[in-house]
Amino acid sequence: MAQLRIGDDTHRMLRELARNEGVSMQVVLNKALAEYRKKQFFDSLGEAFSALKNDRKAWAQEQQERQTSANTLSDNAEPDELWTEDGNVVGR
Fold first, then answer.
1. Over 90: is that where the pLDDT of 78 sits?
2. Contact (CB, 8 A) for 92 and 78
3. Do 17 and 28 form a contact (C-beta atoms < 8 A)?
4. What backbone phi and psi angles, to 5 degrees, belong to 67?
5. Cβ distance 31 to 21 under 8 Å?
6. CB contact at 8 A, 26 and 11
7. pLDDT tens digits, one per residue of 45-64
8. CA neighbours closer than 13 Å in the CB half-sphere of residue 27
9. At what angle do helices 25-54 and 56-72 cross, to 10 degrees?
10. What Cα–Cα distance (Å) separates residue 12 from each residue in 2, 22, 32, 39?
């Protein structure tokens, strides 16, 4: 197991959160890091999407591609059809 030095305030916060949840400080830290990673991902995604929208030509191409995809999504399937993963219809 790796050891990590943290400040006293951070240690108190971890201990308090762990006590409140009835879990170990390691569990609290793991959850916090997972949330941090998720936040970084969505922040990066948002920045990329903003850059795409700010590029008029690229955004127009994206909109055209979305329209093309929207026209093919149903492929004449009935809205109440249920399909299995192997491609069989199991109900309507």
1. no
2. yes
3. yes
4. -65, -40
5. no
6. no
7. 999 999 999 999 999 999 99
8. 9
9. 100
10. 20, 15, 15, 24
H and E: helices and strands count for the chain: 3, 2
Tokens 């997972």, residue?
Answer: 34
User: Looking up tokens 């093919």, which residue turns up?
Assistant: 72
The pLDDT tens digits of the residues spanning 3-33 come to: 999 999 999 999 999 999 999 999 999 999 9
Dihedral, CA of residue 83, residue 86, residue 88 and residue 89, to nearest 10: 0
Q: What is the pTM of this model?
A: 0.66
* DSSP 8-class letter at 23: S
Q: Where are the domains of the chain?
A: 8-71
- Token duo for residue 39: 């936040």
- Determine how many CB atoms are found less than 10 A away from the CB of residue 28: 19
83 - beta bridge partners? 89
- pLDDT computed for residue 39 by the predictor: 98
